[in-house]
Design goal:
- The protein has helices spanning 8-12, 14-21, 25-39, 55-63, 76-86, 125-137, 156-168, 173-186, 192-201, and strands at 45-49, 68-73, 95-99, 111-117, 139-150, 206-213, 216-222.
- The protein is an alpha/beta fold.
- The chain has a single domain, classed as 3-Layer(aba) Sandwich (Rossmann fold), CATH 3.40.50.
- Strands 3-2-1-4-5-7-6 form a seven-stranded mixed sheet, sandwiched between helices.
- The protein is globular and about 45 Å long.
- Keywords: Methyltransferase, Transferase.
- Residues 47-145 form the Methyltransferase type domain.
Length: 226
């Protein structure tokens, strides 16, 4: 059964649980921060697709004190959790919170960066093209799109490797097996080739992988080639 992100118990335990599920979770966010610092100007406008508990938004608010943020989220419980979490760094109200899809923003002022971190793999296959194309339409001409997601397993050894690292991170064997079984309900992963094709078909002229940790990969995309 897929996880219910409107369930308060799931929401409250998310930050601790995700660090056991995602290998190198903190390192991934550090890389994303480095890329943003290398590309963004002082007063950049940033869109985060999927607020989650607000962890990602919280550290970006601290690292970019003059940037403005728009954050979308489909779960009411998650959005409220995010609002409460980032409140100490949002006293100047630099964040616009939206309960709903980023697709409603395509005709709004464009963003210098759009982030979809651990979100795109939840989007059903028949909706991915619309999801990515809408993200592309939210970008300014020089903006960057960052995505980091679970990729499709290409062998049994890959799923076994993920199982092992989750157990090394603190999950029980029962929890890890439940996670692997649940992936069929929760995730719609792509291969590397499919990811690049989807991004190019969505209108991105430049696509580059910026990291890989086991079966998770991160990509940076721009409208134009360098």
């Amino acid at each position: 059964m897929a996880k219910d992100f409107n369930n308060q118990q799931v929401v409250d335990g998310y930050d601790q649980h995700i660090r056991k599920l995602i290998p190198g979770y903190e390192v991934v966010h550090l890389q994303i921060l480095a890329i943003l610092k290398a590309h963004l100007h002082t007063h950049a406008n940033i869109l985060i697709i999927g607020a989650g508990t607000g962890y990602e938004l919280g550290y970006l608010l601290q690292q970019f004190p003059q940037c403005r943020f728009t954050v979308t989220e489909l779960s009411t419980a998650m959005l409220e959790k995010a609002k409460n979490y980032v409140a100490p760094w949002n006293l100047d109200e630099r964040v616009h919170f939206i309960l709903g899809q980023h697709t409603q923003l395509i005709n709004q002022p464009k963003f210098d960066a759009v982030l979809s971190i651990l979100v795109t793999h939840f989007v059903p296959f028949d909706q991915k093209q619309c999801f990515l194309h809408s993200a592309q339409q939210c970008l300014s001409a020089t903006g960057i799109f960052l995505t980091f997601d679970l990729m499709q397993f290409e062998s049994v050894s890959q799923s076994n490797g993920l199982k092992q690292i989750c157990e090394l991170n603190g999950l029980s064997k029962q929890q890890t097996q439940a996670m692997l079984s649940r992936m069929q309900d929760d995730f719609f992963p792509l291969t590397e080739i499919q990811t690049r094709n989807f991004l190019q078909q969505a209108g991105f002229g430049y696509v580059e992988r910026f990291c890989q940790i086991l079966t998770y990969q991160g990509y940076i995309a721009r409208l134009k080639t360098e």
